[in-house]
Design a protein that fits this description.
alpha/beta, Rossmann fold, seven-stranded parallel beta sheet, 7 strands, about 45% helix, globular, binds nicotinamide-adenine-dinucleotide
Length: about 260
C-alpha cells in the first residue's frame, strides 16, 4: 500500500497510460481523481476502481482550460481533503512532416502538451503549498516521452512539446524547492507503449500491430513495446515516498531506446 493516505489526480485517465496509472494508484491505497476530456471514459475507469473496492471520482477536464482546472480541483476537494499527487498525463501526438504541419495543428499540440502541463503544475502548486509540512512531499509527475530526449521524423512538434515538458519540469522542481514548498516534480519518459495513442499512429502510418511488434524487436534494446502497466509502475514510484530524494529529473521507461 505505497499510496495509502494519498489522493492522486491523473489527467488523460480515460485510457492508456493514465487509466493504468489511476488503477495502480488506487490498488496501492490512493483515492483517485480520474480526469479526462472524455468524461464517459473517465467515469468508466472510476467505476472500475470503485467496483474493485477502491475510491475514485471522475471529473471532466480539458487541460487547456484554466477555469476548468479550478473547477476540477474544487470538485475533487469537495470529496477528498487534499491532493498529494498530480500526474499531468493528457497528451496528443501528430504524424506529419514539418512541411505538412499546419499552424492549427501546431497550436493544438502546444495547447494540450505544453499549456496543459503548465496549468496542471500551476494549480497543483497553489494547492500543494498549503498542505501540512508534516506530510510527505507532494509529487507532480509530468509525462514527457523518449521524444523529450531524441528527435524522430514525422513528430517534430510533439518532440518540441515533450522536450519543453522535460525542461519545464526542472524549473518547477527548482522553483518550488527554493520557495520552501514540500513538493517534488519529475518527468516520466515512456517509450512506445501499447495504448490507443499508439494504435492511431500505426493506422496513420499504415502499419499493423503485428508488423510494428516485428519492428520493435530492433527499435529498442529490450526488443518490444511496453504495456501501460509498466509505465504506471514508474508513475507509482514517482508518486510514492519511494522516490523521496528525487526531484527535477527524468525517469525513462523505454526499453533502452534513448540509451543508444
Ligand atoms: N503510448 C505511447 O507510446 C507513449 C509514448 C511516450 C509518451 N506517451 C505520453 O503518455 C501520455 C499518455 O499517452 P497514451 O498513449 O496513454 O495516450 P491515449 O491517447 O491513449 O490517452 C490520452 C488521453 O488524453 C486525453 N486527452 C486528450 N486531450 C485532452 C485534453 N485537452 N484534456 C484532457 N484530456 C485529454 C484523451 O481523451 C485520452 O484519454 C501522453 O502524454 C503521451 O504523449 C505515450
Amino acid at each position: 500500500m505505497r499510496m495509502s493516505g494519498n489522493t492522486a489526480l491523473v489527467t488523460g485517465a480515460a485510457g492508456g497510460i493514465g487509466a493504468a496509472s489511476a488503477k495502480l494508484f488506487a490498488s496501492e491505497g490512493a483515492q483517485v481523481v480520474v480526469c479526462d476530456i472524455d468524461f464517459l471514459g473517465a467515469k468508466n475507469v472510476a467505476k472500475k476502481i470503485c467496483d474493485e473496492g477502491g475510491k475514485a471520482i471522475a471529473v471532466k477536464l480539458d487541460v487547456t482550460d484554466e477555469a476548468a482546472w479550478i473547477e476540477c480541483f474544487d470538485e475533487a476537494l469537495d470529496r477528498f481533503d487534499r491532493i498529494d499527487t498530480v500526474m499531468n498525463n493528457a497528451g496528443l501526438i501528430e504524424n506529419l512532416t514539418i512541411e505538412e504541419t499546419t499552424v492549427d495543428i501546431f497550436d493544438r499540440l502546444c495547447s494540450v502538451n505544453l499549456k496543459g502541463v503548465f496549468l496542471g503544475c500551476k494549480i497543483a502548486i497553489g494547492h500543494m503549498k498549503q498542505r501540512s509540512p508534516d506530510l510527505p512531499f507532494a509529487s507532480i509527475i509530468n509525462v514527457s516521452s523518449t521524444a523529450g530526449f531524441v528527435g524522430t521524423a514525422r513528430t517534430g512538434i510533439y518532440t518540441m512539446t515533450k522536450g519543453g515538458v522535460r525542461l519545464f519540469t526542472k524549473s518547477v522542481a527548482v522553483e518550488v524547492a527554493e520557495l520552501g514548498y514540500n513538493i517534488r516534480c519529475n518527468s516520466l519518459h515512456p517509450g512506445a507503449t501499447e495504448t490507443p495513442m499508439y494504435d492511431d499512429i500505426l493506422v496513420s502510418r499504415n502499419i499493423t500491430k503485428s508488423e510494428f511488434r516485428e519492428l520493435a524487436k530492433t527499435r529498442n534494446p529490450l526488443g518490444r513495446m511496453a504495456q501501460p502497466y509498466e509505465i504506471a509502475n514508474g508513475a507509482l514510484f514517482l508518486a510514492s515516498n519511494d522516490s523521496s530524494f528525487m526531484t527535477g529529473t527524468e525517469l525513462a521507461l523505454d526499453g533502452g531506446y534513448a540509451a543508444r
